[in-house]
Design a protein that fits this description.
Elements lengths: L3 E5 L10 E6 L12 E6 L2 E7 L14 H10 L4 E10 L9 E2 L3 E5 L24 H13 L4 E2 L3 E5 L7 H9 L4 E3 L2 H10 L3 E10 L12 H22 L9 H4 L7
Parallel strand pairs: 1-4, 1-5, 5-11, 6-8, 7-9, 9-10
Antiparallel strand pairs: 2-3, 3-4, 5-10, 6-11
Helix pairs in contact: 1-4
């Protein structure tokens, strides 16, 4: 049965779109989720929502319990995850306020558990196409219909954080082929694939990072200010895309079946 998960990021909490809302605590073998889980419905579609950084943004990117969050969603029957996330732009054509629906990532994290399989089993999950192409197309089509500035693909660089990049690092990430940069997409997207759940990031550009000499250095106030201004667009996008999601056969669901030794 179709069930939509939303993992809210910086400046994007629980959108006021759900009916029959209750908050629950879900046990996981990996500890507590980032916050109590909100469950409800939107146009009769069941929705599960977790605030990635917890109440009042109190959990740093490196300390988010990604495994608990994804495990809980899987246990609650989530089939598809939409994950809003703040990103810095590494390319001039991706302006602050633009949406990007990434198709690739570059992992520059160093401290995070990125698999559920740490015992006698080993999981070699394919990651050639890490984000669900079906969800990405739906998001791009909805953004087009709503006339929201967006980019249908891009490479997101995920860094450890919580600090922002140096100028040298920012220039390096551009040379590596990065289009946007954030601190949370990895390992979230990897764990979703291990769980057999379709996953797409809704990346919103908040700044030009620090690579562009004419731009002022990125600050937290800058990020949150842009996120607040564009929160309504995130809501519009979710409202439009959720009813269009269908629980159809997808490679995202099946990769795990042949990946465990």
């Amino acid at each position: 049965m179709l069930k939509i998960g939303i993992i809210g990021g910086s400046g994007v909490g629980a959108p006021d779109i759900l009916e029959n809302v209750v908050k629950i605590k879900q046990h996981t073998p990996y500890g507590a989720t980032s916050d109590l889980i909100t469950v409800g419905t939107f146009k009769s579609i069941p929705v599960v929502l977790i605030s990635r950084h917890g109440d009042n943004h109190k959990i740093a990117p490196s300390l988010v319990n990604y495994r608990a969050n994804i495990w809980a969603m899987k246990e609650l029957g989530v089939t598809h995850i939409l994950a809003p996330t703040a990103v810095g732009s590494l390319q001039k054509h991706i302006a602050p306020g633009d949406f990007v629906f990434p198709d690739q990532f570059i992992d520059r994290t160093t401290k995070r558990s990125s698999t559920f399989y740490e015992g006698s089993q080993i999981c070699h999950i394919p990651m050639a196409e890490p984000f669900c192409p079906n969800l990405r197309k739906l998001l791009s089509d909805s953004a087009t219909a709503l006339k929201l500035p967006h980019h249908s693909k891009g490479t997101v660089v995920t860094i450890e954080g919580p600090r922002f990049s140096t100028k040298a690092e920012s220039h390096m990430f551009r040379l590596l082929g990065g289009d946007v940069i954030n601190m949370t997409t990895v390992p979230e997207v990897v764990l979703a694939r291990e769980a057999g759940v379709c996953y797409a990031a809704i990346a919103m550009s908040t700044d030009y990072d620090c690579w562009h000499e004419s731009e002022t250095p990125v600050t937290l106030d800058m990020v949150l200010s842009t996120m607040k201004k564009n929160a309504e667009n995130v809501k519009k996008l979710l409202l439009d895309v959720i009813p269009k999601i269908a629980d159809v056969p997808c490679k995202c669901h099946d990769d795990i079946k042949t990946s465990v030794l």
